[in-house]
Amino acid sequence: MPPLQTLTQRFDDRFTALERRLGIETIVSAIDTLPPGIVETAIKRYQGVIRGNPWYFPTLQDVDLEQFIVRWISVHENYFAVAEEVMALLLSGNGSLSVLCDPRLLARVIESETMRGWVGKRSPSGLDALLENRVDELDALLTPLGPDADTVFEFGGVYTGDPTRVSAENEIVTLFTRYHTEVGQPLTVDMLRTQPNATALRLLRGFCRYSVSQFNGKYDDLSARLHTPRPQSNDMSGLVNDLVAKLDNNTRQRVLLLLEEVKALNLLNLNYEVKYSFKGWAGLMHILVIVACSDTTGIQSDVYAMRARLENGE
Amino acid sequence: MPVKTISGDTWRVGCHGNGPATGPVVIVRSQEDLGKVKEGDILVANQTDVNYTAQMLLAAAVVTVEGGRYSHAATFSRENGITCLIGAVGAMDELKDGDIVTVDTSDRTIKVESEEEE
User: What value, to the nearest 5°, has the Cα angle with vertex B95 and ends A167 and B48?
Assistant: First the structure.
């Protein structure tokens, strides 16, 4: 899927530019001096906001996967840009969340979250909807294979044998194993200043929301498992192709196309969304604005009521 | 003989692993419970996310109530050869910490070998 091939590089470039502009030490210091518990509870709080509000998605619904991926990237680049804006404001306020309590900024965050949600899990045009649509069609097409259909789904719907296309969880373990070999001690801000380790940076950006304490917590949790050999992912495409070859030619062509699409959607869902969407650093920046506005207005999760109250100066 | 076997239509998806796994149940209702998980435990949760990574590697098996064949728990378990059952509706209610169970992906069952006393 062509747009997926450049996705990681595009976001890596953005992270690198952000660090060059603001300074990695400044960024991690700002995150680690946030009010206690805010980073740890951010995902849960964000999910409460996502589930507790109606979202007015554009009515356009994607069918073509390539167009959807292009849109997903574009939406998340905008999401990242809003996050950069929030980070700059946070730094200008010396870490105080009150600087984020602004109705115009909240409006930008609502707009950005609406677009993210449009391509997200709960949208009729989002990742899960597109995935379910393809899985349903595959279910029907694979019926002639009987119990072997499960094997086709299981190994044909994910990338196998490619260490760069794995779940976020697997990537975390791989990166911490590498960090353990290369550095082998807890990360400090000083280490980032003097000799930043590239693996540590990848972990901080994608999986620790730039929090050194989160990094060290995960490193500590995983340390007992970093010496244990893990199974290698074997390329199972041969087995899948052998099974699919039992289908008639037209069905086979359609099944192979659908499996490629399911793989791409799973990679987005299980890896890229974790790093670049609401569970990552950009998501943390969005929820900080909502938390700041919630604290000031006393409104728990209704983002539209928060905005109205702030605009009316109540 | 097992005390009881939890199985049936509600056990939607069996995810491949390394065969049957036996151990004590640990119910994880939120991230705060992750600290309870020790080597060889059977981790039972509604669903998992990236914060469960270390504990999934410690567990002898992973059981989740929600999710499908491509959920985070299913995919990570498949990548790492962890015994895993997905879509185990009722597991969070019917099992409790300390119950000794056998998770078998071949017949998609959880056999309760002995129950922890209340």
Answer: 15
SS3 per-residue string spanning B12-63? EEEECCCCCEEEEEEEECCHHHHHHCCCCCEEEECCCCHHHHHHHHHCCEEE
ipTM associated with this complex: 0.87
pLDDT tens-digit profile of A101-118?
Answer: 999 999 999 999 999 999
- Active site includes B16? no
Residue A40 contacts B where some CB pair is shorter than 8 Å: yes
Say what angle helices A148-156 and A237-244 make with each other, to 10 degrees: 140
What is the nearest CA distance from A12 to chain B, expressed in angstroms? 20
Ordered strands of the B109-114 beta sheet: B4-6, B109-114, B100-104, B21-28, B42-45, B61-64, B83-88, B11-15
Angle CA(A252)–CA(A258)–CA(A264) in degrees, nearest 5? 140
pTM score, whole prediction: 0.90
Tokens of B9: 């239509």
Separation between Cα atoms, residue B67 and residue B85, nearest integer Å: 10
Q: Which of A121-130 are b and which e, b meaning 16 or more Cβ less than 10 Å from the residue's Cβ?
A: eebebbbbbb
Question: A211-252, pLDDT tens digit by residue?
Answer: 999 999 999 999 887 877 666 667 788 889 999 999 999 999
Residue type for A242, please? D
Report residue B37: phi and psi, to 5°. Answer: -75, 125
How many other CB atoms are there within 10 angstroms of residue B68's CB atom?
Answer: 17
Give residue-wise pLDDT tens across range A191-218: 999 989 999 999 999 999 999 999 999 9
Kindly list the residues from chain A whose CB atom is less than 8 angstroms away from the CB atom of residue B78. 154, 158
Q: What is the pLDDT of residues A18-33, one digit of tens each?
A: 999 999 999 999 999 9
- CA separation for the pair A239, A260 (Å, rounded): 15
Is the pLDDT at B10 greater than 80? The verdict is: no
Least confidently predicted of A167-176, A245-254, B86-95: B86-95
Interchain CB distance below 8 Å, B54 and A225:
yes
Helix, coil or strand: residue A100: helix
Residues whose CB is less than 8 angstroms from the CB of residue A292 and which lie 6 or more positions away in sequence, other chains included: A97, A98, A99, A100, A101
Please work out, in degrees rounded to the nearest 5, the angle formed at the alpha carbon of residue B110 by the alpha carbons of B113 and B9.
140
Helix or strand (DSSP H, E) at B114: strand B109-114
What is the rounded CA–CA span in Å between residue B18 and residue B16?
7
Domains and CATH numbers, chain B: 4-114 (3.50.30.10)
Query: Which residue among A157, A167, A279 sits closest to B79, beta carbon to beta carbon?
Result: A167
